[in-house]
Amino acid sequence: MTIQGLGRFGVWRYYSGFTPEDARELEGLGYSTLWLGASPGADLPVVESLLEATETQLVGTSIVNIWSSPAKQVAESFHRIEARFPGRFILGVGAGHPEHDQVYRKPYDALVEYLDELDEAGVPKERRALAALGPRVLELARDRTAGALPYLTIPEHTRQAREIEGTGALLVAENKVTLDTDVDRARTTGRGSVGFYLDLKNYVSNLRRLGFSEEDVTKPGSDRLIDALALHGTADEVADGLVAHLTAGADQIAVQVLDQDYMATLRALAPALAARV
């Protein structure tokens, strides 16, 4: 499902980490979508300030946690934002992690119920997306939303997801990066981010499905795993790794920068990415 203005390159960052000034510069650099991570609340904070600061850039949540943000309240926030900035907000929702949600129950059933509530509240299918890794939830994303927002994946997962999603559904893949040619230091940076997810069953299960071994996914993660999930090297080398997701079928790659100065990294990456599409 085509979303007008989506573009090929977006930026994934904790929702509290974006500023309006950064958003404006990123729009000029060619990053057409900002993806807000870390489960923003039902009132969808900061979305409007970022949209106000930009002209055509889209903002999406990646993701609103269905356990902590009631669908009715989220729908009210969606309609508030949509009224002010028609077509520029994408509501991404997901089930989170059983290890971190005390009320966690069967995630698939809960996702279906949540989407039913969004339907009842008038949130259109084409303005929402679903965090999805496994085949069943990818199918749900295809059937009940604009498409899928896979996280912590590799191009092979993107290829498999596109086969499930078909040609018409949205597919935005996230990948972590550090612009560092010192391999040991870059892997240390990558492990600092990836290690958290190696305690979470849904991510580890997905990585096993993709062919990573038990040794690979055991903390702190093998070099092979870290190199795939947290790309490192020169701007050209990192750009090649990111564009591999597009080649595999993604509509957009959401770049998550692990470097302390994330804007400097995105400035350096922008011309390398633009040269590849």
From TrEMBL:
<dbReference type="InterPro" id="IPR019922">
    <property type="entry name" value="Lucif-like_OxRdatse_MSMEG_4141"/>
</dbReference>
<dbReference type="InterPro" id="IPR036661">
    <property type="entry name" value="Luciferase-like_sf"/>
</dbReference>
<dbReference type="GO" id="GO:0005829">
    <property type="term" value="C:cytosol"/>
</dbReference>
<dbReference type="GO" id="GO:0016705">
    <property type="term" value="F:oxidoreductase activity, acting on paired donors, with incorporation or reduction of molecular oxygen"/>
</dbReference>
<protein>
    <submittedName>
        <fullName>Putative F420-dependent oxidoreductase</fullName>
    </submittedName>
</protein>
<feature type="domain" description="Luciferase-like">
    <location>
        <begin position="22"/>
        <end position="116"/>
    </location>
</feature>
<dbReference type="Pfam" id="PF00296">
    <property type="entry name" value="Bac_luciferase"/>
</dbReference>
<dbReference type="InterPro" id="IPR011251">
    <property type="entry name" value="Luciferase-like_dom"/>
</dbReference>
<dbReference type="InterPro" id="IPR050766">
    <property type="entry name" value="Bact_Lucif_Oxidored"/>
</dbReference>
